[in-house]
């Protein structure tokens, strides 16, 4: 690809770059409309197949039990199904009793430190114009419950299993270590019974504008951008660990490569109660990348993409993808859910929620040079109780009682933070 526009360090001149990028890509691809129709046919066929699975099995999501991961009993057929859908539920990653105990301890931690009195509201606007209900996301990172889950053997084994679904070695390069994931501290969600929530609109994370403009992403998506979609593999890790998102003021960003985003349930959750949905087709990223190149999109636009925000999926530009959103099944406390870093996801709205909707966000972020650098920052933040570097500097926990501390790290935790 012509690299005349790839030196963009800050996205202030994005409109000019977008026009140039479109010109280059159209020349490179040739028959853009023909390629888009090829991609569209594949994605819609996969969405239809997922809907059939949903009708037959009650969910399009593959489900495995953690005991089978621990015992190495997951078949190649099941692994291929997870790759096809780009998502998986791991039943009882932790026992229900343990998860409910963590939930109770989390509430005690918040109450003991008067969180309701000191909370100042959301510290960023990462989700841009997406419909979202933000007060239920708490900027808490260093509770005993969160850190116990992050450094547990169960989490380490789950993350290793997920990382190994990827091709992590190619052409003599080992892109990441699948058996070590760094601790990537993220927030918690606490949604009370009776809550009415807008949920969160469909989107992807891990870069928006970057997916078209960054040289590393041009390598990741080279098969798409060179009209070789039939050779594109969303599970090939080559060059993904070289991506760095643009800085955008105080906006939340992700400084690590995540093979999977994920969360662990701290409460039971029933269908229809504001649950996570995904478009269970990891190749759908090709649809998103090619859609702005069609003639009905203004030359300086990327179907709603804005610098420093998530990549939105909308009724205006992507109605066929919106139709593909599939809910997770009912969840028990202790279950964890995981989705490929390219997978479109949303949180459904709910009125008068029945029961709690509590989760802690824990992804799989395998060890690589980029992730190791962030792990060093995480260790420093843990030492002082500061907010991690990827999140607004709110630092609520700096002086909190019963905060997790460095000396409580076990061998998994120390290894995950590069502390030996």
Description:
- This protein has 420 residues and is an alpha+beta fold.
- The chain has 15 helices and 16 strands.
- The protein has helices at 14-29, 32-57, 66-70, 76-85, 96-112, 115-118, 144-150, 153-163, 210-213, 215-220, 222-225, 284-290, 319-322, 369-384, 411-416, and strands spanning 63-65, 87-91, 137-138, 169-170, 173-174, 177-181, 188-189, 200-204, 260-265, 276-278, 311-312, 326-327, 336-340, 345-347, 359-361, 366-367.
- The strands form 4 sheets. The protein has a 7-stranded mixed sheet. A 5-stranded antiparallel sheet has the order 11-8-14-10-12. A two-stranded antiparallel ribbon has the order 4-5.
- Helix 2 runs antiparallel to helix 12.
- Mean pLDDT is 92; it is low at 1-11.
Which SSEs are present, and which pair or pack?
Blueprint: H1 14-29, H2 32-57, E1 63-65, H3 66-70, H4 76-85, E2 87-91, H5 96-112, H6 115-118, E3 137-138, H7 144-150, H8 153-163, E4 169-170, E5 173-174, E6 177-181, E7 188-189, E8 200-204, H9 210-213, H10 215-220, H11 222-225, E9 260-265, E10 276-278, H12 284-290, E11 311-312, H13 319-322, E12 326-327, E13 336-340, E14 345-347, E15 359-361, E16 366-367, H14 369-384, H15 411-416
Parallel strand pairs: 1-2
Antiparallel strand pairs: 2-13, 3-7, 4-5, 6-16, 7-15, 8-11, 8-14, 9-13, 9-15, 10-12, 10-14
Helix pairs in contact: 2-12
Question: Which structural traits does this protein have?
Answer:
seven-stranded mixed β-sheet; five-stranded antiparallel β-sheet; 420 residues; alpha+beta
Our estimate of the beta-strand percent is: 5-15%
**Helical residue percent band:** 25-40%
Oligomeric state of the chains present here = single chain
Structural class: alpha+beta
Q: Flag low-confidence runs.
A: 1-11
Instruction: Please state the CA-atom Rg, rounded to the nearest Å.
Output: 21 Å
Separate helix tally? 15
Major beta sheet, specifics?
A: 7 strands, mixed
Number of strands: 16
The shape, in one word, is: globular
Main sheet strand line-up:
1-2-13-9-15-7-3
Let me know the average pLDDT: 92
Distance between the termini: 41 Å
